[in-house]
Specification:
The chain is built from 12 helices and 22 strands. By secondary structure, the protein is α/β, with parallel strands linked by helices. It folds into 2 domains: 85 residues, Roll (Urease, subunit C, domain 1); 289 residues, Alpha-Beta Barrel (TIM Barrel), CATH 3.20.20.140. β15, α8 and β16 form a beta-alpha-beta unit. α6 packs across α7 and α9 packs antiparallel against α10. The longest helix has 15 residues.
Length: 385
């Protein structure tokens, strides 16, 4: 048995987490057996972390590909590269991803789901996990489709849903839809019955339509601000409705391009317990910055962001936890930023335990140690063991 002392645990309301220091007891396998608050003066016994944070690894709910693999195009021959990608993600501090499949042909979608099913059979320790897939489409608003191919968008219906997911229902985690489109109510009901999380995205929903959607069971916004109406003082739209509702997860891409840092900070300050960092990672992740062919279009990958020639934002290629470091610097809230990258996504997936209870039983190898300034000017991470 050994201890590490003067440890901080991330908290969505930054300073509430920073005011508390913890003592962590480990067994001989480096597994956490006890987490106790330090009531008064910091302890000097054991390994002194001097206020560093301990957190789970990152979980990314929107990951479209990497190392040259575009998930809608994945096939069995890509599995060895997929394993390399998952190993690379673990090294980058990411424990799990929802492999995201944007709007595509039905045959491609079902093939991708089959490949992920096969790849999950070969998971092992110290490799990023493939959670259930995130289907981003095809029930999206054409006017807000962004880079999604218009020819593969589809009118929502139970038949259209079944044609895509029949036989894979238990291997889908999340689906993004535009709830204002006729037919989505039945689709939302069916997805909720299957325990699939439903997210609003690529939508032109107004305030009333968004409120109805949240009451029907939609519980998240996909890449908040992007591909949806903005936050307006006369028409709050889906963002204002989600903030007012109070328990809607707000997916946020923190690359500084998809959302201006000022808007990211405002959102985070308004709803620190709702913001969930996502990467919207694209296939150039793990590759160099250059131009790529993507869906018969030229994709420009530069400074961590991917765009089409016309300036349409497509995704990101910088590591997921870089977004956490950016948010911490912009907002001066490292604890809350760490929470948004590591615990908030788990809450979306159903984790409701306090972080100290969640960490018990885990080994340091599964966790991250964060060192930085309390104002967020500097924040970095390493594997805790």
């Amino acid at each position: 048995m050994r201890t590490i002392t003067n440890v901080r645990l991330p908290h969505p309301r930054n300073h509430e987490g920073d005011e508390n220091l913890w003592c962590i007891s480990l067994d001989n396998l480096n597994r956490i057996v006890e987490i106790n608050p330090i009531k008064s003066n910091p302890l000097n016994q054991g390994q002194d972390w001097k206020g560093d944070w301990l957190s789970p690894m990152g979980v990314d709910l929107q990951f479209n590909g990497g190392m040259g693999i575009n998930f809608p195009d994945i096939n069995n021959k890509d599995i060895p590269t997929l394993f390399k990608l998952l190993d690379h993600l673990w090294a980058d501090g990411v424990e799990a991803i929802c492999p995201t499949i944007i709007t595509c042909e039905i045959i491609k979608l079902r093939k991708a789901l089959q490949v992920f099913r096969e790849a999950r059979k070969h998971h092992h320790d110290n490799r990023c996990k493939l959670l259930g897939a995130h289907l981003e489409g095809p029930f999206l608003a054409s006017e807000r489709r962004g880079a999604h191919p218009k020819e593969h968008l589809c009118q929502p219906s139970l038949d259209a849903l079944s044609a895509r997911i029949n036989g894979f229902e238990k291997e889908i985690c999340l689906m993004t839809i535009a709830p204002e489109i006729s037919g989505t109510a039945a689709v939302i009901s069916r997805l909720k019955a299957l325990n699939i999380i439903v997210s609003l995205g690529h939508s032109k929903a107004n305030t009333k339509e968004s409120q109805v959607a949240f009451n029907q069971g939609i519980s998240m916004l996909t890449h908040t601000f992007n591909a949806m109406p903005g936050l307006h003082h006369r028409e709050p739209g889906p963002i204002g409705s989600a903030l007012n509702h109070g328990d809607i997860a707000l997916g946020l891409i923190a690359d500084g391009v998809h959302v201006n840092p000022t808007m990211a900070v405002l959102l985070h300050r308004l709803a620190p317990e709702q913001v969930v960092l996502v990467s919207d990672m694209l296939f150039p992740y793990g590759l160099k910055d250059t131009n790529y062919q993507w869906n018969q279009k030229l994709l420009l990958a530069e400074k961590g962001t991917c765009k089409l020639e016309d300036g349409t934002l497509v995704g990101v290629k910088s590591p997921f936890l870089d977004g956490c470091k950016r948010l911490a610097k912009w907002n001066g809230t490292p604890s809350a930023a760490i929470w948004a990258a590591t615990m908030a996504s788990r809450k979306v997936l159903g984790e409701r335990r306090p972080i100290q209870e969640f960490l018990k039983g885990q080994t340091l190898m599964q966790l991250l140690r964060w060192r930085g300034k309390l104002n967020g000017d500097y924040l970095n991470w390493q594997h805790a063991a």
